[in-house]
Amino acid sequence: MRHLLSRLDSELGFVELNVHTLWALVHVRPDLLRERKIRDELKMRIGRLLDESPVSARTRRELEALRYGVAIATP
To answer: What total of structural domains would you count in the chain?
Structure first.
């Protein structure tokens, strides 16, 4: 999970593939969002990607779904 988080950077290649992989992983294993540190980093990286990166509509939807997952996983 941490490796994928570090790959959520628009300057690195394959950002859309990394977003999709992370989205699919969290979809199957939502318990991965239990750790606060992971949620905080994911939230920060999602915000940055949505604000600064031109991504496809599909990737934008997956980022929004991840953002929602973080929100509902936060106590």
So the answer is: 1
